[in-house]
Amino acid sequence: MKLLLVEDDQPLATALQQAFVRENYAVDVADNGASADQLLSTETYDLLVLDLGLPQMDGQDVLRKLRARGDRLPVIILTARSGLDHKIVGLDLGADDYMTKPFELSELLARVRANLRRGANQTKPTIDHGRIKYDTVAKRVYVDDQELSLRAKELGVLETLLRSVGRVLSKQQLAQHLYSFDDNSSDNAIEIYIHRLRKQLPKDSFHLRTVRGIGYLLEPPE
Predict the structure, then answer these.
(1) Is-contact 19 105, C-beta < 8 A?
(2) What are the residue ranges spanned by the domains of the chain?
(3) How many Cα atoms within 13 Å fall on the side-chain side of residue 1?
(4) pLDDT greater at residue 203 or residue 13
(5) What confidence tier does 194 reach under pLDDT thresholds 50, 70, 90?
(6) Are strands 208-211 and 215-218 parallel, antiparallel or unpaired?
(7) Residue 76 neighbours by CB under 8 Å, 6+ apart
(8) What are phi and psi of 76, to 5 degrees?
(9) Pair 99, 105: CB distance under 8 Å
């Protein structure tokens, strides 16, 4: 799962980024509204944590433009604006949740999990692919109802492939779903995750073809 954190308070942004990484999320951070709007227009995220009092573009405008593009990305507003009117405006603009500062980190993490679950349920909570079943909410994968033990990055690659059956994905596209901008990623790392998945998943369901010079194609199960 990849989050975008938009917060102009540098110490707070750093602390939150570290907390999200400990929870195995990839995190990009923007410190102003214009950068956030640009990232939201060009990158793919699973959830947005958004401050309102931002330089260059107010958080309300970031949210307004996001929803105007038809993007249903789950959004948690995290702001010092505690008045009821601000909360009503934020929710009316399309925010899914609203928290005021100061806050408890444990509550924010719980709300992130809850909104990610809701976002997954709006699409498809379970993906069936032949003998493979992937629970997108619990982040667990089963083969014939037997759970496999996969690492977080391997699960991320698998989920991305399962959501893109029949479409070729480059190593760069796979990496975008696994890493934040500050992470050091490499084509070799993606190749290792692919190798591990091929070893653990049944060959009669996991028809993953290497398209030379382009990337990987997960074909529909027979």
Answers:
(1) yes
(2) 2-122, 126-218
(3) 24
(4) 13
(5) very high
(6) antiparallel
(7) 47, 48, 49, 50, 95, 96, 97, 98, 99, 108, 111, 112, 115
(8) -110, 120
(9) no
Residue 173, pLDDT above cutoff 60? yes
Q: What are phi and psi of 139, to 5 degrees?
A: 60, 55
Instruction: Report pLDDT for 220.
Output: 86
pLDDT in tens, 32-89: 999 999 999 888 888 999 999 999 999 999 999 999 888 888 999 999 887 788 888 8
- One CATH from 1.10.1040.10, 1.10.10.10, 3.50.50.60, 3.30.565.10 for 126-218: 1.10.10.10
Question: Look-up: residue for tokens 């990623």?
Answer: 185
What is the full DSSP assignment across 46-102? SEEEE-SS-SSS-HHHHHHHHHHTT----EEEEES--SHHHHHHHHHHT-SEEEESS
- Angstrom distance (rounded) from CA 7 to CA 55: 10
* 182 burial via Cβ count (<10 Å: 0-12, 13-18, 19+): exposed
- pLDDT tens readout for residues 143-157: 998 999 998 889 889
pTM score above 0.70: no
CATH superfamily to which 2-122 belongs: Response regulator (3.40.50.2300)
Specify the DSSP class assigned to residue 164: T
Q: Which two tokens stand for residue 11?
A: 């110490």
Report yes or no: 148 and 200 within 8 Å, Cβ to Cβ. yes
Q: What is the pLDDT of residue 19?
A: 94
